[in-house]
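In full, the data.
>
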Amino acid sequence: MNISFVGAGVGSLYAALLLTKRNPSLHITIYEKEARVGGRLNYVEFENGAKVDEGPTIVLLPSKLKQQLIEAGLSEDEVELLEVDPLYRLRYQDGTSFYKYRDIERQADEIERTFGEGDAFRRYMSQKKEEYQIGFNTFLDRSYASKTELFEPKLLLLLMRLKAYESAHGNMKRFFEDERLRVAYSLQTLYIGGNPYATPSLYGLIPYREQEEGVWYVKGGYFSLATTMENELKRRGVRFVMNATVNRVHVTDGVANGVTVNDEYVPYDAVIVNGDFPLMERLVDGVTPKAYEPSSGTLLLYFTVKGELDLPIHQFDLPNDFEGSMRTIFEDGKLSEYPAMYTFNPSRMDETLAPDGTSVLYVLVPVPRKLEREDIEAQGTIDHLVGRIEVLLPDFRERVIEMKVRTPMDAERFGLFEGGSFGIAPKLSQSAAFKPQARPFSKIERLYAVGASVHPCGGVPIVMIGSQLLVKKMEEEMGAIHRDDTRSVSSM
């Protein structure tokens, strides 16, 4: 049986690992428009040879990730996970700062010392533990055959119990009095491109799980995970075709039966698309593209600098008026005068990323989409951000060896839907049963989908859950690939 993947993102790589582990004689071809695999899981390389993650940096759900890799046939020692503790530091414009720790009692003490709400934090963790199990098992780790499934009385009651009608930030008002704490435990919706003041509280379970399992780091950079997967797939005989543009997914009599690659038709028994789904569905014969709302854009600055940086591995630098900043970005479509800024200093725990005597630094700021570098420089945003780094590192500007910039328009040119960094926006009407599924079109057989814009959500381990749901769906519908994969599906 011949199967093709359109796009070599982590969703494709992991799904291909699962398929080849269970069905070694499958013939799989992965087409990728870039010269490297990984999609968002990529790296930036500097002239001095230093590297830093281009996209995702924070490894959440480490136990799930380890389990997933083992299930796909990779040994634990092939991907080295390092715990980051403290998780990160939060600094506020008013001068307040505090750390997040994995240890619950240490965290409660830190919150009590800073805000006087240690018991409120304990109550938060207790309640969210129960809600997480409901949310994960009921809504995340499953597929939906139709939108109506979400309206089953049992699921509706659970949604009400989880208070999915509240925003992530609004839900924190039930726990914390101090606005800075409410922000600290709702800003994580930005990890998936959502406004904390509008994103459903269902996604507010992210900070709970982050606190429960901690924040982790892949030695060598998160991007190295994609390379590890690629190497194993090549060992198993999977074929990669790089710098390959897929122009069309062919559908005949309701069955996907091939792709046009670089203007040449190639037949396949099944096709899996793994780019941003709103762009992928435009390739499919007979499909009228739907309207989707993209996630937020990001401005990314990458530095290689002289010496070590006296910064935490992860840090959030937040404005006094966080709500106003989010409104400016998400509703007004303008750059914030004092934006939330995330910094990632991986050289503090990974000496392999940069030459001796140098370090790398990653800076991310949520911004509106459709911005070019000149738009951002006209507002003085880059200079403003460097100035804020200099408050902590007074000689930072002089130590910079090289800086690279990635704007929302760079992301759009790369292939991210309308320049949104995280796929489609995580709003209720684009979640769970309302999100594209592993089998996205009920009237088209043998066409499947995976990725950040496909259920369940963005984030590397979550996209890999999507890969598991995809493979399960393929085996349900094409069961013979498991029983006798030497026959072509098209002959059944």
Notes: The mean pLDDT is 95. The longest helix spans residues 118-140. The chain has 17 helices and 19 strands.
